[in-house]
Amino acid sequence: MIRSEQSLARFALGLGAADAGGPLSAAESRLACSSVGLPPVSNGEAAEVRAAIRDGQDPLGEAFCTLRDPARRRADGAVYTPGQLVGPMVDWVLEQSPGRVVDVGCGSGRFLGEIIRRDAGIEGVAVDTDPLATLMTRATLAVLGARSARVINGDYTRLRLPEFTERTAFIGNPPYVRHHQLAADAKTWAQQAADRLGHRISGLAGLHAYFFLATALLGQRGDVGCFVTSAEWLEVNYGAIMRALVLDDLGGKSLHVLEPRAMPFEGTQTTAVITAFEIGSQDATVRLQDVKSPGQLTDLASAGHPVARERLREASRWTTLLRSGAKPPPGYIELGELCQVHRGTVTGANATWVVRHHPDLPPSVLFPSVTKARELFAAGSVLDRYDHLRLVVDIPAELDQLGPDERDQVNRFIKAAKKAGVDKGYIASHRRAWWSVGLQGPAPILATYMARRPPTFVLNAAQARHINIAHGLYPRQRLADHTLSRLAQALRDTTTLSSGRTYAGGLVKFEPREMERLMVPDLSTLQSRESLAAAVDR
Ligand SMILES: C[S@@+](CC[C@H](N)C(=O)[O-])C[C@H]1O[C@@H](n2cnc3c(N)ncnc32)[C@H](O)[C@@H]1O
Predict the structure, then answer these.
(1) 368 Cβ partners below 8 Å, 6+ apart?
(2) How confident is the model at residue 512, as a pLDDT?
(3) Among 5, 65, 72, 80, which residue has the most ligand 1 atoms within 8 Å of its CB, making it the best to mutate?
């Protein structure tokens, strides 16, 4: 019977822990010595536990979770992973054909144990700071016959791996330990590691972020990994380092977000996320899956919907992209896959910067612009002229770009605006040069985004600029006029008020990111010469 941590250590040693995983650390040896006086494991018990381990269970880890009190385990980030998650993660890792697998923060060795059960030829490395955890992992490996694996009782962030010619896979459940429980030297290590990789790390980032950093430092191009963590880093400011690592250094392939009721971790109500990555991979899309029940977690390689990597880079919160993840019907994609949506420029004082005409200013600083939503509604499908539009005064920040005559005119305008206090306005005073509105380039499609009627989408043949009463749709790749025109048509035909957010008074507003989530026919349908209705029906 296992009644204490010492007797668990004794049990692990009885199963052959000292013979697997290489030499014991000083802490493991001390623990082993402290258990020596305890009654030996009976043959019957040992046989039962061996059979359970071979059968895919983790009797030692379960005993550990009962014996060590939850508060202490939480402080060490020792919330072990349910088998329902270990299985699909191991499947994915083995599909990548690694020659070596590193179990990061191995606990009782649930991940490496399962790897070895499925492929005994893989070289295994398991690391954990907790000597009882590493003794359990050694015992598991001994029972499974993986005597050549290395088990390291130490800190993963300081791990050095011998060079290896084949692919290495990193797998695990990096410990969730919050920043205020981390020692100063650990924080210093994290700052230096982030510096080396060219990132900034918030002082509020927790230990799981450090594990991502350590993996980015240890991994080589082509190595892969699959980690399950709490999902908060997808949302919060201090998760920025993890988002950056997943997008760039680690080469994120897919994210699978598990709601607590889909896969409850013992004693927690946390939303978890599985991140699968391949170092060096920069696929144009990353797959995002919203996992609502364990049955959906079958094939990490194909589950979820693709989201453009660039959209993830632009978004400061990733779960909004996830929730959109109602899978587009066949033949459809999200608008954001094709276009970035940008709100028009805020002038800060339309009375100064938006004019009907201005004979005293040079034409080079006057830009015909859409400044009222009704101009887009009136345009119908194409805005093909601009002589009826107002002009936005957009003066370059560097005035020496202007010729001498232009400069005199502009200087007079600036002087008058300053006298009227325009430079003191909030927006103007936060611009690089208060006199330079900074219009964006003409957007090929312009959209209204706030009205009591559905938004309209207008092909901008006139190349007009726009201010913040409209959004501009900027294709991520060059699209022919025919394609753009069909895209605008599809958006006009299908966008309903219910896709936006309703504000008091019934106004419906589409934020740029919300607009990017609208479903549109895929590129081949948009490019086809068939009528849109026929192409969509097919
Ligand atoms: C969330 S548990 C995961 C255990 C096991 N891999 C599983 O999934 O069941 C995290 C493990 O990381 C270990 N740990 C905490 N800090 C560590 C560090 N700096 N280096 C290595 N392991 C650490 C804890 O002792 C704990 O066993």
Answers:
(1) 386, 387, 389, 390, 391, 462, 464, 465
(2) 83
(3) 80
- Ligand 1 neighbourhood includes 106 CB (under 6 angstroms): yes
Question: With contact defined as beta carbons under 8 Å apart, do 273 and 242 qualify?
Answer: no
Q: Residue 470 class from Cβ within 10 Å (0-12 exposed, 13-18 middle, 19+ buried)?
A: buried
Sign of CA dihedral 50, 126, 188, 234: negative
348: left (phi > 0), else alpha (psi -120 to 50), else beta? Answer: left
Give CA 474 to chain center in angstroms: 23
Separation CA 102–CA 87 (nearest Å)? 16
Cα–Cα distance for residue pair 67/70, rounded to 1 Å: 9
The response to whether residue 76 sits with its C-beta less than 6 Å from ligand 1 reads yes
495 CB within 6 A, ligand 1: no
Helix/strand/coil for 127: strand
The C-alpha atoms of residue 139 and residue 8 are separated, in whole angstroms, by 11
With a cut of 80, say whether residue 433 has pLDDT above it. Answer: yes
In this structure, is the dihedral angle defined by the CA atoms of residues 510, 515, 519 and 521, taken in order, positive or negative? positive
pLDDT band with cut points at 50, 70 and 90 for residue 500: low
Going by alpha carbons, the residue nearest to atom 7 of ligand 1 is 80
10 Å Cβ neighbour count for 506? 9
pLDDT-based confidence at 290, cuts 50/70/90? confident
pTM of the model: 0.68
Q: Is 79 in the pocket of ligand 1 (CB under 6 A)?
A: yes
Give 510's DSSP letter. -
Classify residue 81 by its DSSP letter. P
Instruction: State which of 25, 85, 104, 129 you would mutate to test the pocket of ligand 1, scoring each by most atoms of that ligand within 8 A of its C-beta.
Output: 129
Burial zone of 379 (CB within 10 Å; 0-12 exposed, 13-18 middle, 19+ buried):
buried
The pLDDT score that the predictor gives to residue 317 is 82
pLDDT at 537 over 60: no
Atom of ligand 1 nearest to the CA of 133: 27
- Give the separation between CA 13 and CA 298, rounded to whole angstroms: 36
Sequential DSSP letters for 374-423: HHHHHHTTB----TTSEEEE---SSGGGS-HHHHHHHHHHHHHHHHTTGG
Pairing of strands 465-466, 366-370: parallel
* Ligand 1 in reach of 230 Cβ (< 6 A): no
95-143 pLDDT, tens digit per residue, is 999 999 999 999 999 999 999 999 999 999 999 999 999 999 999 999 9
Least Cα distance to 398 among 426, 359, 436 occurs for 436
